[in-house]
Amino acid sequence: MSTCRAIIRTSFSFVESKFYFLPSKSFLSLSLRPQKPGPISPYSVSTRQYGSVQAAISLENGNNLIDYENDTPSKDNVEKLLTNPDDVTQFMKMERRCMVNDGVKSMESSSNKRWFPYLDRYKCGDVYLSSSEVVEALSPYLMEGRKERFVNVVKNRSYSVCLVVEGLSDFGNVSATFRSADALGVQSVHVVSCDGSKRYRENRHVSMGAEKWLDIELWDAPQECFNVLRSRGYRIATTHVGMNAISVYDMDWSCPTAIVVGNENRGVSDEALSLSDLRCSIPMKGMVDSFNVSVAAGILMHHAVCDRATRLGCNGDLTSEEKQILLAEFSLRHSKSAISIVHEYAKRKETTHMPKL
What we know:
This protein is of the alpha/beta class. Helix content is 39%, strand content 13%. The chain contains 12 helices and 11 strands.
């Protein structure tokens, strides 16, 4: 028995030393149990309750600490987003271009310019910061690996292809399309809710937090959504199984295109079909005549990205200025602490430029 106790005691000592006595501050500290009261040692961090090891990862820079928010969504995160438009809007930090309510004209975009939704400014009270100032304010608080990840993701982002999901009745499918869009570099996703209740069945949430990094816009009807998309220069391509549908493999995806996928059972609505510019389909070689909607969306976006890479050399097509703005947007989204840090930076800026009496 004493031998067993010794083995158990040794095992827990090993775990404790593995996570608390790291050889250098440059490593990430993981805390798996509450710490005892007292001063914090240089090799440990304050503890919080997390549902996974990923959520416990913090980044350390000198005496400053920013916690990465868990990229895995909470139980009701996706449902809350899609049933509360204000929550979707709050995800977007940099100021956005204004659109006329009817969606026919843009106040700040011209028809001959490719659509990009953000302006190069972030409002902090009465002070405006540029994207470069936002990045400068947050850069000292981000690990190099995180900054490199942001740069690589932004490099491959594009607004030239966007996804529209219309009338889906299952949050699981909505979440899966979000995850595919993020993985393939499709930054803009639109959700059209056609039922009166605008509610979805509960799901297992498979988006893996992708909704945090996308620009999601909610609409009540296809016409409202399509009018705005056309004003931004998109052609509307609805998925449809029929004789008049063209193969997705015969389309030129270098043109700005909004891909529309429909309800799990009924498909795209008649209204959306009548308002679309073209109808497309994925050629089927088996006995069934359709894919699951989230699978179809993933195939469509993947082919669009590959076709654009073949024709244009790459899918990502943002200008240097647009990349900088989106980089600032991602930096602001990654943690609630980021907002506080940027606001403090803005206060210092305002004080510095205050005229002397």
